[in-house]
């Protein structure tokens, strides 16, 4: 999906790691929340509250879920993070992403 229609945009940015990771939240008509953002090169660790779908739209990174090995995404790809867990990222180039919060 390259376009999302009929949304509410939260204008205030989410800023992490001294501005090296930023995103904006959108709310879909059905109440589903997503964030659209950019990550600059660096190493990061995030925690989740609910299950998340991380869609990498463009970029190059490695990700590591708890209890798993590092995996590479170059270009585009998707990975899922269970709720109440942390995950690590090694971002090698400017990376464009969309995070969907899944209430499963």
CATH architecture: Sandwich
Number of strands: 9
CATH homologous superfamily annotation: Jelly Rolls
Topology pattern, helix = H, strand = E: EEEEEEEEE
Assembly type? single chain
* N/C terminus separation: 21 Å
Can you tell me the residue ranges where pLDDT is under 50 for at least 5 consecutive residues? Answer: none
> DSSP helix count?
0
Please tell me how large the radius of gyration is. Answer: 13 Å
- Main structural class: mainly beta
Helical proportion?
Answer: under 10%
Beta-strand percentage range: over 45%
- Overall pLDDT score: 95
Describe this structure in words.
By secondary structure, the chain is an all-beta fold. The chain has a single domain (7-102), classed as Sandwich (Jelly Rolls). The protein contains no helices and nine strands. β3 and β4 (33-39) form a beta hairpin. It is globular and about 35 Å long. GO terms for molecular function: guanosine phosphorylase activity; purine-nucleoside phosphorylase activity; thymidine phosphorylase activity; uridine phosphorylase activity. One of its GO terms (cellular component) is cytosol.
């Amino acid at each position: 999906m390259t376009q999302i229609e009929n949304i509410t945009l939260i204008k205030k940015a989410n800023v992490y790691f001294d501005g090296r990771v930023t995103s904006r939240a959108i709310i879909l008509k059905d109440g589903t929340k997503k964030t659209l953002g950019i990550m600059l090169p660096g190493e990061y660790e995030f925690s989740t509250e609910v299950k998340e779908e991380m869609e990498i739209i463009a970029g190059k990174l490695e990700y590591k879920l708890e209890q798993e090995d590092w995996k590479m995404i170059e270009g585009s790809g998707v990975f899922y993070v269970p709720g109440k867990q942390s995950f690590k990222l090694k971002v090698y180039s400017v990376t464009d992403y969309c995070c969907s919060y899944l209430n499963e």
